[in-house]
Design a protein that fits this description.
about 100 residues
Length: about 100
């Protein structure tokens, strides 16, 4: 028997963990995130459009093109997320009775 205060005694008295829970990754619906991104790029582009003369004067007019690109690239992303959510619903329907 190990003497009190030693590592062996502490390990022997340690509470045993309860049954391990299975940790599952988050799987939220993704379409709202894609729509939110499209909206953010559109609003940012419209706001910067009001500052276009200042942006051109300072040589930052490419910011408007970046907003346009973000807005347009959001639509293929939205299509992918619609497909992802459909597969997610199918997976969950197969698991639940």
């Amino acid at each position: 028997m190990a003497s009190p205060g030693t590592l062996c005694a502490v390990a022997a008295n340690a509470p045993q963990p309860a049954q391990e829970r299975e940790i599952t990754p988050l799987d939220p619906p993704m379409v709202p995130f894609a729509i939110g991104g499209i909206v953010v790029w559109a609003v940012l582009g419209l706001v910067l459009l009001g500052f276009r003369p200042t942006l051109v004067e300072q040589g930052r007019d490419e910011w408007l093109w970046i907003c346009l690109a973000g807005f347009l690239w959001g639509f293929p992303g939205l299509a992918v997320m619609i497909r992802h959510d459909a597969n997610r619903r199918r997976r969950r329907a197969a698991i639940l009775p």
